[in-house]
Amino acid sequence: MRRLAVLGGAGGIGRALVARAVAEGWRVSVLDLPASLERHPVPDGVRAIPIDATDAGSVRAAFAQLEDGLEGFVNLAGFLLGMRKLESVEPDFWDEVVAGNLRAAFLTARAALPLLAKGDSPAMVQMVSGLAAHTRPGYGPYAACKAAMVSMTKTMALEAAPLIRVNAVGPGAVDTAFLRGGTGRSSEDGQTNLDIAAYSAMMPLKRIAVPSDVVGPVMFLLGADSAYMTGQVLWVNGGAYMP
């Protein structure tokens, strides 16, 4: 049975991904904040591992529970603290966003690589963002982190080849708790920081993404159909951005 670890697996995209992976026969472990795991308990047969992905000690302890190895690792962790111009961003705000997005991605990828090296045809998928390349005002700290994660993905793809494939998915906005403060970081039912109706009207496909729109590309990058792909980003945005 193929083994998959999903960082942020208790979030909106994460829960959909876990359900799909379990249905396809993966043995899944979900790594997430304790508050997220409490709010969204994992399904039967799925292992829950609490983690603070910004803390190196917590990351080591969590990944030690996966010592038998992995065939897949997906990083869905990250959060957005609202819109503000870079000139208004305080250093503490910047540091918090960088820690929760870029530092967490680095620490967990570093911990996952030796476990993937034990697996059969292993693959890693990083969740970046359309904002990494399709810049918009007000999202500077978050966009910078996601752009850095694209570069990190490409570097890891080169350094881990030919054994481990490393790719990324870059979605546009997805209608989940992420837009309402984040899973485990908010009540998840607040006002969104995005006008969904206006956003949808601007999309060539005339709707906002839902979790299943992102799950399919992730599963593709984990599987044999993408066996000759590494260091790539799949942009999933309803046609809003076409590099």
TrEMBL record:
PROSITE patterns: ADH_SHORT (PS00061). Coiled coil: none annotated. Signal peptide: none annotated. The keyword Transport does not apply. Pfam families: adh_short_C2. GO terms for molecular function: oxidoreductase activity. The keyword Oxidoreductase applies. Keywords: Oxidoreductase. Belongs to the short-chain dehydrogenases/reductases (SDR) family. PANTHER family: DEHYDROGENASES, SHORT CHAIN, ESTRADIOL 17-BETA-DEHYDROGENASE 8-RELATED. This is SDR family oxidoreductase. The lineage of its organism: Bacteria, Pseudomonadati, Pseudomonadota, Alphaproteobacteria, Acetobacterales.
